[in-house]
Records
---
Amino acid sequence: MTTLASTETQLLERIDEIGAKIHDVREATAATIFGQERVIDLALITLLSGGHALLIGVPGLAKTSLVETLGAVLGIQNKRIQFTPDLMPSDIVGSEVLEEGNSGRRSFRFVKGPVFTQLLMADEINRASPKTQSALLQAMQEHHVTVAGVRHDVPRPFHVLATQNPLEQEGTYPLPEAQLDRFLLQIDVSYPDEAAERRMLFATTGLEDRPLKTILSADELMMAQRLVRQLPVGDQVVDAILKLVRSARPGTGIDQEFEDMIAWGPGPRASQALMLAVRAKAMIDGRLAPSIDDVIELAEPVLKHRMALTFAARAEGLQMSDLVAKLVKPLG
């Protein structure tokens, strides 16, 4: 019992220590990205969970600035790729070039692409061809790429924050379900409120330039990710996660009302994502364990991109957010 109490005390101390730094990261990011506190929290949950996120919003909502700011305050290298229809897989992962040495001997040398970074901004990911998207998929899932039969590991930590413009659908390639499932969260970026936009006007159109300081290091971020996985999860929360995810799958004896709304539902990766996300949220809030309220709050960003509505549901004007709200209602 003494050992258990000692372990819990040590865990709490580490949570408090990391939590204080995460709080500073939130404050520093919010001072640059105005009126997007929920987006910042969800992005931090993604990073602390060791996952990737899909940011969906109209242009001009500081999605690119968010990635640059997080890279600066978290002390991790960040790069940006603008996805276009003519982008090739080699433009992402890199390619081999033929070089001639001083001795006249020729050999191939691998030149790394922009995917070899710690935080990658994949801008307008759905504008690239499926072949190019699949090149990024391997790096996201396996943390390495293969060129000419040779494996090249990407740096650690490695996270992708991809953006998608909901307005510009002409000339785009919708992400396949397998790739969507690789994203831990779908983060919807909305317009800031009037007060936040007022502050933004003064902060971004003046002469003052606010330098960003590094608050966490890459090693500390990875330590925080390991700490997230150590947080205990109560049986009630686990039951709530399973009940929610399984209720979103057609053909599993769910309520007939949902059966007629859902074309296909989330797989086991959704349960894993929700389990990690609620732990990360608890740590951000300085709590030792997640609650059912965390499950309810994070249900939409975890499930939204892992489900599809039936034609009948879409014809009736049902939105995915409405469906998720119906699914979480029995949880409280």
Note: The mean pLDDT is 83.
---
Amino acid sequence: MAALGAFPGHPDLAVAVSGGADSLALVLLAQGWTAAQGGRLLALTVDHGLRPEAAREALQVKRWLAARGVAHRTLRWRGPKPKANLAAAAREARYALLFAACRRARFRALAVAHHREDQAETFLLRLGRGSGVDGLAAMAPVSERDGIALLRPLLDMPRDRLRAALAAAGQDWIEDPGNADPARARTAVRALLPALAAAGLPPVRIAATAARM
């Protein structure tokens, strides 16, 4: 967090948590950080209403976090869903709900759990689209939207280390079936990472290139 510098609302922090390993690890880490800083922590889960299991998963996240003394709210994407570009629309709706919840609760910073492999995947996806320097910078550690600071404190953290942190804390997580969807471009790129690493291009180097961009 120190590497992110000053941000609005420091040290109060809202965290987006889906129930997956990455976001749950971020919540536990953020709980320790906000406690040490004397700040507040708020976990936010978005239920897009696209899978019948989503409401049950959000409730499970609430129960897990309640047991750890973490305040939690579930946000629901209501109304008709578009038939075209659903993934993009769901992503936009998710951030709109998260930022609106931050404003209502008077939190001015939202943390998300993108990690090193996510950054490498984003770089490769944009490389495939022919992006220039700005696009190849991939995801920024700190950005701003609608007066809310969007923080990505885990961009240098490998996925395995986050799962090890959960195992050490005795915390289970929910596997998102969408992560294995072969129709998603990100899923295909993720499958390439082991071969790229074996060829001398591991995620840490790809992510470092994005940072230099």
Note: Helices lie at 21-37, 54-67, 86-105, 116-128, 133-136, 159-169, 185-198, 203-212.
---
Amino acid sequence: MYKKISTLGAVCTLALLSACTTVPLSPKGQGGDKSAGSDVPFDQVRDSGPAVPVDMMATPEVTPVREPIGVAGNKSPYVVNGVKYRILKGVKGYREKGQASWYGTKFHGRKTANGEVYNMYAMSAAHKTLPLPSYAKVTNLDNGRSVIVRVNDRGPFVPGRIIDLSYTAAQKLGYIDKGVARVVVEALDPAALPSASETLAIEKDAAARQALPQDASFKLPANTFLQVGAYSSASQAEEVRTQLAAAFGYPVSVSPVESGGKSLYRVRIGPIAQQRALVSLRESIEKKSFGQPQVVVDAGE
């Protein structure tokens, strides 16, 4: 049994120390920053697919798993363009018809609402009120095609549109050229899904027997970590680091940072390379009462 780590020594929340605090709330949120390598304001940059179209039809489907719902991206209510939105407390039975759009290069590599990094080649989506992360089945009503997506972002904040799919998911549904499609979105009940740890173990066993052609998980950006806490005491942070190192098979580091004129000590696990491994590790950390770790992608590491 591992000792439950106190958060009383933390001087500020994880959200304030992670690298996602300056990122617009969502793909369709308010962005006053400039696009990379350009003097054009970000909100004036036109979104698109890759300069040379990429055939993503063979991309494996995601394997839905039961994931912990963290703080990042789940503030409720929140306001965008004067409209107030409330995050759903439960998704069982959620079903909605409307228009789906998609987003691509403009947001590729930028932070999503829950602190991950948007990958237009992954099977992901943005939604205004589903908890992050969630899984949903999206069906194109015009051609009958369906996909499962992992919802890790907020948007689209355009009247009539209910979901924003990644470039790959939209291509598989057959509406890349049209831009929008009539769809029905059905949330998958987390209670009916296997845990990430169970699924990871099954996939590893199947891969060993060559029963799976490839891992359905996608590669994470370099320097992806789980931040367990930020502490005012270096000794407390070191104690936490020691416990985590003994409990999990990943590197654990303590790094000092200045915030509001005070010295804080961040405790992070990683780097972590694969999405499925990250989900499984996060689940294990919470089960062992180490709190709710937040995903951090640190370009400065």
Note: Residues 1-36, 211-216 have pLDDT under 50 and may be disordered.
---
Amino acid sequence: MLDVRRMQVLRAVITSGSVTAAAAHLGYTPSAISQQISALEKETGMTLLRRAGRGVAPTAAGLLLTRYTAVISQHLAEAETALADLRAGRAGRLALRYFASVGPTLLAPALARVRHEHPGVAIDPKLADPDEALSEVDRGDADLAVVVRRPTEAHHQGIRVIHLLDDAYQAVLPVGHPLAAERVVDLADLAGEPWVGSEPPGPCLAPVIDACAAAGFSPDFVAQSEDYATAQGFVAAGLGVSLVPRLGLSARHPGVVIRRVRRPEPIRTIHVVIRESSLEQPALRTLLDALRDSTGQ
């Protein structure tokens, strides 16, 4: 493989017209310049310079190589500029994965801040289920994912897991329910009720099931919804009661009341999962700071 630095020395000699002039421009000795040219001729197997009066002139091979050197030098300069822009957060791409209920409450204001501070960075946010989001970060297809995780889940090598928020579930009751007059509802008081499911099987449903088990019962699901708005609508229609996390209650149905839950209080733990190598990106660090600010914690 040809040595790019030696090619650039050859170009300097041809442009300057002599080894001595090129040495002065590059800050080398004439002997060092001659050694670089000799090494390049050995690499190519061809003579690159010929005597021309008191200076030198390129052979056909030297002229051909110089043309390519000009192109390579331009691409190198462009690469250096692009790397500088990426390092400074003026360019690049930020791929992130998230689940629905953090979109309007946490992610939207955080992304607005990133776009304001790093307008040259392309942002690629996509909805993904937690398992797939983790896999995408692990494979390098995404830089960051906002997920619900159990505290005991193992961490993958090269992945950093950062606690973002504890999101408590709250009781969603139909207007006129006997417990609607209470400010706080004991979870055990919902044991005999028909339940409307608000979560799909997985890490978001697990804290609900675990909390009910700790309160001594298993919820009797008579209707299932994987959408918080629909779950509230089912509750308002009198199909049952439900638990919905606080972040999922940004839009409330007029036919329900929301009450805190205790003994125990079900909580889902929200984390940010990041590739360690991606932390070099200024835009990602801005996003992480903005997500923390969005939680108000």
Note: The domain at 165-268 is CATH 3.40.190.10 (D-Maltodextrin-Binding Protein; domain 2).
